[in-house]
Amino acid sequence: MAAELPTITTRPTIVSQPNFNAEKAATKLHRCLKGIGTDARVIIDQLTNHSNQQRQEMKQKYQNMYGRSLTEDLKVELGGHFEDVSLSLLQPLPEFLADCLYLAGKGLKTDEKCVIQILCSTSEM
């Protein structure tokens, strides 16, 4: 008789903000991206203090309000690792995980730890 596996519950580290307003968030991001210079603190606050679902709403509201892609505007204004992290935070979770799996298998050596971590830590999305 096989042993029963324990039930594991996970809790995201970034949770939905109860008073989230996608329009205000999109406005803050637009203001910090236009003109000379970019306010990195605003980008960090908006992308790391909201859940993935809220970031998707924020991205859609930005598109609707300004007729521009938030992802493309960030690509123009940012660079390096900060750009990579910001764009990753704006991806829907399934797309992000698919990209990670693709990159883990790309090249001469497969990153088996990455593949195992993704496959074993995700549940139905």
Automatic annotation (TrEMBL):
Q: Name one Pfam family in it.
A: Annexin
Q: State whether keyword Repeat applies.
A: yes
Output the SUPFAM superfamilies linked to this UniProt entry: Annexin
Keyword terms, alphabetized: Annexin, Repeat
Question: InterPro entries, from UniProt?
Answer: Annexin (IPR001464), Annexin_repeat (IPR018502), Annexin_sf (IPR037104)
Does Repeat count among this protein's keywords? yes
The family line of this record is: Belongs to the annexin family.
Protein name per Swiss-Prot or TrEMBL: Annexin B9-like
